[in-house]
Amino acid sequence: MSKLRLATVWLGGCSGCHMSLLDIDEWLIELAGQVDLVYSPLVDAKEYPTGVDLVLVEGAVANQDHLRMIREVRERSKLLISFGDCAVTGNVTALRNVLGTAAPILQMVYAERADIQPQLPYEPGIVPVLLDRVEPVHAIVPVDLYLPGCPPPAARIRALLEQLLAGVAPQLVGREMIKFG
Ligand code: SF4
Q: DSSP per residue over 14-34, as a string?
């Protein structure tokens, strides 16, 4: 039987969700026997491939690169999981929304509050353009499953992946499996 093609994606997040994935520890070896990791910050793939069975998406959609990426990910993936509170609700990444749109925030952070060399970040093709609002993943593309937590604990990630690998409809039950934060 061919292995499940797994991907993980890092949008506007702190990488804590990916760190929690690594906290699965020795079960990662078992996981590696059952999946092909075809795209992830943990491997060196440059392009998001087609025909991905399952993708964990960490982080909110905060800039133009994220927007392009999440649309491509959705198009090329069968099952998309919002991985962690930033992906599910915006969470920490979306805290800037209360301060207004991108331009005044950039002005405040990089110009008004700079001690030396006030200068707005601008390098087309290198520094992605911020969106005016940070959005959770489901506000941009359809999401199939939600895995809350900041970060989701390793046991919760493992429980979800085990059910998916067993081919059963995943159910996370009980406070420890579904609480945010
Ligand atoms: S949910 Fe928490 S751990 Fe995950 S990216 Fe956001 S802030 Fe980091």
A: -SHHHHHHHTTTTHHHHHHHH
